[in-house]
Description:
The protein is of the alpha+beta class. The protein has one domain (41-157): Chitinase A, domain 3 (Roll), CATH 3.10.50.40. It contains 2 helices and 7 strands; from the N terminus they run αβββββαββ. It has helices at residues 3-47, 109-114, and strands at residues 53-54, 60-65, 77-86, 91-94, 100-103, 123-128, 148-157. Strands 1, 2, 3, 4, 5, 6 and 7 form a 7-stranded antiparallel β-sheet that branches. β1 and β2 (60-65) form a beta hairpin. The radius of gyration is 21 Å and the shape is globular.
Amino acid sequence: MQKQPKVFLGTIALIVIIMTGLYSCKKNKSKTQKEEDEKIIKQYIADHNLSATATGTGLYYVMTSQGTGTQPTISSTVTVAYRGYLTNGNSFDQSGASGATFPLQSVIKGWQEGIPLYKKGGKGVLLIPSELGYGSKTQNKIPANSVLIFDVELLNVQ
Length: 158
């Protein structure tokens, strides 16, 4: 009877060790992806001679023109003319010249953070790490873990 608790405790200890290892691997994988995205974005900035600003979340932005109108918040509905592409230049989405209108809450986190940096009439570039884009999910023409680049012009804020 005395041996059963030791075996049971040994099994629990083994499960805890395995679970800790799995959690650590997942955590390190996420950190590794963040580091890889940061490296890709910095290389893209250097290769294209951009003057970009980091926000601290992994997002970088270029302010071509800040604009002079209303500045959106997360609860705003915005109209943005944009072109989205990967770091290799392959375009995956583009609005017409009149832009696309949507609630800012309904888009990827990179846009939720980046678009409010501009005022109405503002133009620039958002360099979005995969974590603030589509993450490890493939989305139409966008491969998993892709850094996204968007040329944006904020046309209207409601």
